[in-house]
């Protein structure tokens, strides 16, 4: 941490800051400059929060220096992690594509889509049984019945299941049926839920919150690792900006940014990241080219009557076309798909 | 809902859209223009989601028209609601100020601050026993022990208690001790928690999420009302933008915006809304002048050693000054404080 | 400037950074911490740009420390500046209200509105002769003819004129007629224009750009002062965010933020800051309460047929009501209006 | 345009809106719904601005329907345009890469970099002679001397020159030396400059503003076409968001979004779009994969001493690696590079 002093601060003000820092058990190193003094603070093991120093007389600004995450960091573990969902490895050589409907609506719908995405080359099946919906009057998901349908889809296709967990109360139930627990963007800072999935023995797919910085995103992952669950896959799914031509702004730079700091694998979700069917294909290609470890794609065979997120779902034949394009790109990227 | 057709769409494309709409049980009214045709859709009672129509050939755009909220709307109940927390009315003639530390740290700290804010004129006491923290290594709150300290503070000062509820599991415990359950910004779209507090018999203070539109904010309130709990107070606490001179950007226009659409009372939180002690006073004045029904202010007698959010806490004497300024403004606004 | 090293950087990497810094003629102070080394850099008088050091091996991050502005800073001149437009002082005891139509449309329209806003208490008259319009097909202003109409309005009412200057070519023409040159939000980083108005002998009203940080805003003002023109008034007029209930998000925290760093006066423009007539009054009150030195308000006697920005213009009688409310608030704020 | 009425609006309010619309010479079509009435407005040829109707009693909201651009739209010209810069076609089969330093610093530096980027496969040379800089104390470019150096670089390498034009006064001078006039992000809504380059006989590269919507971006291009210059290339270069791990957020979805609406070619600038050297390569790949017609890349052989934007410049050998990766991707995309 660095304390920047006002250029008008006198020696007494500087002295007072140094003394206060030392009373907190930390070490202060003054750096006198032409215009102003800065004071480096070291020795903090996370037990003291010195940001309150900002209000001492003569202090202009406090600048944090150390990154607050530990277990997720490449400074702790340099080699990239591979997470296994069912038999599928994320973060390895193979580009992993998970696909399926936004919501489980019925057994027929789910099985039909599962067959189609498997045929096209998906290796994970995604679909929501518990659905977070902006409005209380929207379809909230089939719940336990939906989980059972997902299990049937797995039994028939062999595809491991990724499905969302909404709260601590139903987390264990979801973990019974799912191969991977998805924590959605709206719950990225639901810390009770993060701790809960950290204690369950299931890989977790953690989506970036709509207004989360990379630091906040990694700290949410840190919550899960800190409880003992190291099988975390991150997912960029678009952030909220002023731009109105897509539902969210897919921030593909987050992928190399995360990979530079963290050893955890990271996927992209161009379906939610754009919210528009005709942008899913180009942004999927871009996500592969930027270096994502995988994609999550929404597919529906009758999107105009889907109970949620119809506008962004691909038709099965569009998904097959996407898989073909992705495969060709993967080879250039030194991967298979 | 309005469907806007591409100017190059032919009569067959228009006909197909109209037929699809009618098959969904809705009514389609074509509006031929000089450049293009638009199609008004009516008769939807919320059971059908026609946004998937966006992908039909010749469709340029789909524009939603009806607001999706009902119970929170002034179209449903025109007169403004008054919510009672303990004996304190929010939304009435009196401007309500709640104050206290970010976190309950100890009995001494809590009681000392409670006495000081009461002496200065606060009518609600706020403080966190369960704390949502970005990092798993930050102080997470005293939990049940903190709730008991809050109850002591109420016993001694008579101030009703507002404290945060983090998850469905501890919600009932919090409701036993608190006069008002705060749902924080990070949980604004934790729909399981919203449903839970909707079923408890306690007023709820719902904070706006960091990237929530007014529509999403009101729909989250709608979740609580839809479960039968009509005692909801909204709170603007700053949104996330590119601006870096404050921790969040306090969006004061949200207050008249909410008041125009909804009958629910709305407060402002200039402490989180700015994250900087020296901006709390001016933004508090602004919040009163814009028409907020109340303020939530963080106060700490030793902010430089506070376990959380020290940089934004006012000293008790600064809070007393704030109360004096607020009182003078309230009179001009036709209120008391 | 502070260089933060990766925790895995070895002594050789640290040494190489220090040597490179010293070769640039700067001084390097290493600050060894428990986890990593940071290196303070001092002695830079603005002639060297060391941000390229970020790419040296072992460097994690570069953190700028010194603020790059000088003439606008309170570190240079602590007492707040007062700028005179015609006979009107901005930044003094009096709260200054400038009002008028978005665009000069005709002599009748302009004079009628000028009389009405003067009667209500405005002390500056605003109106655009050259208009920046998003679309080339929108009304672009009357140009020189508009400037002459503004001069007539001044002759009749005595109100000094504030009007926008769009480019270097017409700047002198505008300066002949206007008492104050407005540089609009879209031109805040039109540096050729900033230099040009810096060389003209007219006060400048500089509006904050739609996505400008406070630092960028002040640096744009610095361009004008650096050319010798110290008569600069700043104006907060809303920034662009995801929020869609207003046209822009009026960032009132910018006002105390600017006042803390700079001696220049600052006004607020709630008309553009909200873009909605029914939000102008509450946000005007808030701007006064937060400490703005003045307000700019759009007024039109026939807003439904205005050639630009009709939705945000107040009717003259609404403006009179606003003036009454503002006056009452000003007294509480220790000002007159 | 669609007018949405409040559900409480009575028949008289609806009638008054219809009458006002008809007095403006437009046609009103009421669409009665279950909850509320909407009124479609047609017949507007851009001469009337009906947004002021928002303030009539009973009106809830006004929703614009028609896109305001014409010449840039695929509704006007469906086949994609190809723009020639020197002998280089943008928007054709070939993926076009322009490269060079941020600023022309000296003849040696410029020629050295020009040779290196040509050798690696760039077909356009970019570099600034007039530089827009946030601070007045930063290097402002060599001006005319810089243009002459660029001309030498062209003479030696044969690469057409893309360089920025900052204002109307120097536009003709720049047009004498440059093959393509770049309008920077900060000038995207400098409408005087747009009109000026619209009258010059040189292709224009228009960069998206930092907070511009796609509609605003295309309307700025429309200004240029409306003056008679159809040779416009668009460029996505990142927008401003809360995200702080890159200097800007490169919004790659803008590329398919523009291509869907407009026939103009569009490039991407991953150097400014990320501001970080180590993110230029992955985001360049992503831009190609999303379908961009070309890339603009900053290259410097001594980035640690560059006079501007050193942190984002690639070394010549890194650029050569980028070209190799881009070429492989182009083939998959059905293009050459």
Q: What oligomeric state best describes the polypeptide chains here?
A: homotetramer
Largest interface: A-B, 54 and 56 residues
- Which geometry of chain A do the CA atoms define? elongated
Strand order of the largest sheet of chain A: 13-12-11-10-9-8-7-14
CATH topology of the largest domain in chain A: TIM Barrel
CATH superfamily of the largest domain in chain A: Aldolase class I
Per DSSP E runs of 2 or more residues, the count of β-strands of chain A stands at 14
Average pLDDT taken over every residue of chain A: 92
- Sketch the topology of chain A as an H/E string, one letter per element: EHEEEEEEHEHEHEHEHEHEHHEH
Give short descriptive properties of this protein.
10 helices; 14 strands; 4-stranded antiparallel β-sheet; homotetramer; alpha/beta; elongated; 2 domains; 18% strand; 35% helix; Alpha-Beta Plaits; 337 residues; TIM Barrel
How would you describe what is shown here?
The structure is a homotetramer of 337-residue chains. Chain A is of the alpha/beta class and 337 residues long. Chain A folds into two domains: 2-63, Alpha-Beta Plaits (2-Layer Sandwich), CATH 3.30.70; 83-332, TIM Barrel (Alpha-Beta Barrel). In chain A, 35% of the residues lie in helices and 18% in strands. Chain A has ten helices and 14 strands. In chain A, strand 9 (161-164), helix 4 (168-177) and strand 10 form a beta-alpha-beta unit. The longest helix of chain A is centred in the last third of the chain and has 17 residues, at 316-332. The model of chain A has no long low-confidence stretch (mean pLDDT 92). Chains A and B meet through helix 4, helix 5 and helix 6 of A and helix 4, helix 5 and helix 6 of B.
